[in-house]
């Protein structure tokens, strides 16, 4: 299915410590966590439920094809691109490299799929969470 939404996430804290800094969270950790949690392997070989993962250095890794079902937002996994940035943006700021990478990726995907800007949303628009945190202001 052609993506109709872009949903932005952060790796966040933990249930025990919601303000824990997770800026060092790696793609390998996310892959392992999502394998244990969802066990939903993508056609690209990842278990990561997001379509894209952006690490602290701003490196973007595609984990699922854009039209492949994800595991990131209940009710929107089949018609959205999920982008996760490493970090807890309730506790810390994203890096400049992350913001640049996210902005460039979103611009490309909005044009590629004709996604209206109002359909570029934070995860909190679909769930009772603060995700992607209050310190990232790329989308409202």
Short characterization:
With 140 residues, this protein is an alpha/beta fold. It has helices at residues 27-37, 96-113; strands at residues 5-10, 52-54, 60-62, 80-85, 120-122.
Describe the structure.
There is one protein chain. The protein has helices at 27-37, 96-113; strands spanning 5-10, 52-54, 60-62, 80-85, 120-122. By secondary structure, the chain is an alpha/beta fold. The protein is globular and about 35 Å long. A 5-stranded mixed sheet has the order 3-2-4-1-5, with helices on one face.
Biggest sheet architecture = 5 strands, mixed
Major β-sheet strand ordering: 3-2-4-1-5
Strand coverage percent: 15-25%
Number of strands: 5
Low-confidence regions: none
- The Cα radius of gyration reads 14 Å
- Determine the structural class based on helices, strands and strand pairing: alpha/beta
Q: Estimate the global geometry from the Cα principal axes.
A: globular
Distance between the termini: 25 Å
Can you give the helix content as a percent range?
10-25%
Order of helices and strands: EHEEEHE
């Amino acid at each position: 299915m052609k993506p109709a939404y872009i949903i932005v996430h952060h790796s966040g804290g933990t249930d025990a410590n919601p303000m824990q800094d997770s800026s060092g969270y790696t793609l390998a950790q996310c892959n392992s966590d999502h394998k244990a949690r969802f066990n939903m392997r993508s056609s690209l070989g990842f278990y990561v439920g997001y379509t894209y993962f952006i690490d602290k250095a701003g490196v973007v890794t595609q984990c699922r094809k854009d039209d492949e079902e994800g595991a990131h937002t209940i009710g929107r996994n089949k018609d959205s691109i999920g982008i996760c940035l490493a970090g807890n943006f309730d506790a810390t700021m994203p890096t400049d490299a992350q913001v640049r990478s996210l902005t460039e990726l979103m611009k490309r995907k909005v044009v590629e799929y004709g996604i209206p800007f109002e359909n570029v949303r934070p995860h909190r628009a679909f769930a009772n969470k603060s995700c992607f945190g209050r310190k990232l202001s790329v989308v409202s």
